[in-house]
Amino acid sequence: MLTNRPRPQFPYIRTKMREVTVTGEVIRKKLELNGSKAPGPDGVSTLEKDLGIEVSSNLKFSAHAAKIAAKDNSRLGIIKRNFTVLSEEILVLLYLALVHPILDYGAQSCWSPYLLRDIRSLERVQRRVTKLVPGFAQLSYEERCRRLDIQSLQNRRIRGDMIETFKLLHGYEDIPSSRFFQMNTNNLGGHSLKLKKPDLWRTTMKRNWFAIRVIDQWNSLPESVVTAPKIATFKARYNRHWNILTVLADES
């Protein structure tokens, strides 16, 4: 019931309100606002936007991923039409200024793609970008990223998750970490800030919620990384750790 909420600083506009049901069950109880049904007759929606992020009633971001991939591909076309030859330095500048902000907007804090088709559709944009430098098309995607000094979008999202986890656990955020995490108190190895994984989660959406998806990655980090004295130090140590893992993977 909206009437039970604190009095807002601005009035509700009934005709602009939308109702999104995020459960498979049929909800027969209607929302009410000051005695009237809310939202209006056209207010039931299966896809809504908040802070520029589109989410469907099944809590998937496929429509949003497809939209920003199409938008970035359009911008990539503009770059190709206006620059016949691109050096590595110019390409990175154009990419970071025109394309990457759209791909990176809201990642970690608002949304993170978890369906394979969405991850691939976004990564495909960056794959196309890295082929624009003459002589790069025949290189592997990983090698192109290394030469351009950029990360894959998936690795960048993981890094962002780790930074946000570090900030929560070390009190850099106003939200207490206990609202997201439970510390693991067993002594079976690992670092001193291990997180405990919940005993049960039944849905793919729950497994990919921020507080769940970061646990394994965070617990795998070394002690020197998770106990860094400040954010900048954590980033530097995390980058070194990730680079070592990348080298070991390439050699295996």
Summarize the structure.
This protein has 252 residues and is mainly alpha-helical. The protein has helices at residues 62-82, 88-104, 116-130, 141-148, 153-169, 204-207, 210-213, 215-219, 223-226, 231-251; strands spanning 32-33, 36-37, 47-50, 53-56. The N and C termini lie far apart (58 Å).
Structure description:
With 252 residues, this protein is mainly alpha-helical. The chain folds into three domains: 1-45, no CATH class; 62-146; 156-251, no CATH class. It has ten helices and four strands; from the N terminus they run ββββαααααααααα. The strands form two sheets. The chain has a two-stranded antiparallel sheet. Strands 3-4 form a two-stranded antiparallel sheet. A hairpin with a 2-residue loop joins strand 3 (47-50) and strand 4 (53-56). It is flat. It starts with 31 loop residues before the first strand and ends with a helix. The relative contact order is 0.07.
Poorly predicted tracts of residues: none
Widest β-sheet, arrangement of strands? 1-2
Most strands sheet = 2 strands, antiparallel
Overall number of structural domains: 3
* Cα-atom radius of gyration: 22 Å
Bin the strand percentage: under 5%
Helix percentage range:
40-55%
Give the CA-based shape. flat
Structural class given helices, strands, pairing? mainly alpha
Mean pLDDT: 83
Compute the number of strand runs.
4
Counted by DSSP, the helix tally is: 10
The SSE order reads EEEEHHHHHHHHHH
- Span between termini: 58 Å
Quaternary status: single chain
Organism: Petrolisthes cinctipes (Flat porcelain crab)
Protein name: Reverse transcriptase
